[in-house]
Every structure is written in C-alpha cells, then in structure tokens.
Amino acid sequence: MRKKTAGFTLIELLVVLVLGSIMLTLGASGFGDTRSSLAVREARYVFSAMAARTRAHAIETGSTAILVADVRGDSVMIFKNGQLIENVRFSEEMEIDIQGEAPITRLCMNARGFADTGCNSFNSTVALGFTNGTRTETIQILPLGQILW
After folding, report:
1. Looking at residue 9, what is its pLDDT?
2. Domain extent listing, the chain
C-alpha cells in the first residue's frame, strides 16, 4: 500500500511560476504605457495651472508677472518683480522632457490679465511638447496668453 502525500510536484510549481512571470511581464509593459500617458497629461495640466497662477499674480499685485519655460532645463518658473515665486522641474518631478522651438519661452502677463506682447519672447503662436517615453502631448500658447490643448 502506498502512502499518499499532500502537495505539488516540482513540475507543477515550475509551470505556475513560468505562467505567472509571463503574465507579470505583459502587465508591466501595459502599465508603462499608461504611466507615460498619465505623466504627459499631468504635465499639461501643471503648465496650464502655472500660466493661470502667473495671470493671477499679475492681477492681484497690479504689476507684470512672467512665466518662463526653459526647454534645456525642462523646468517652468514664475517670476514676479525679478524674484522667483515658483519653479517646477518637470524632468525631476515628473520625468517629463519639455520640447519647444526656442530654448526659452517667456510669457509676460500684465495687471489686466493679458499677455504683454512687448515683453513676450514670441509674436505668434508657440508650441510646447511634453514627452515621456513614446508619449507626447502638445500645447499652444497664443500671443495674448491663451493656452490651447
């Protein structure tokens, strides 16, 4: 008479481990694409919010506030009276690469909440891209300070 043993054979355990690793690999690659897509969307929202804060600072204080997008440094800053008010480092905080036509894009907002075209670094519509991996989202900044998606 044979003695019954409880448990799994080595082959059954190996099959389960191989199937589990294949499923994990497929899930991780899909998660990476989703993460990239969410990161570039968040970067667009953050940039739009910073443009709105620049406008709000200018209106509240009655003087010009400046939004600076630094493509080389992958950061966006708000300046008021020559002082740095806010700085978001997109590359470090969100792993986002900012792409643009010029190395520096400057948007100046006056006390009435409109862009000061004499202070801006551009005279026509400017496009900025936010890239993470293979995902890229673009926004456009119009000469009067409007942000288009």
Report:
1. 85
2. 13-148
Options 3.30.565.10, 3.40.190.10, 3.55.40.10, 3.30.750.24; which CATH number does 13-148 get?
3.55.40.10
Question: How far is the CA of 61 from the CAs of 100, 113, 135, in angstroms?
Answer: 30, 11, 38
Which tens digit of pLDDT belongs to each residue from 6-20? 777 888 889 999 999
Q: Which of 119, 130, 133, 136 is nearest to 58 (CA)?
A: 119
Q: What are the tens digits of pLDDT across the range 19-57?
A: 998 888 877 766 667 888 899 999 999 999 999 999 999
Question: Would the CA dihedral through 33, 35, 38, 40 be positive or negative?
Answer: negative
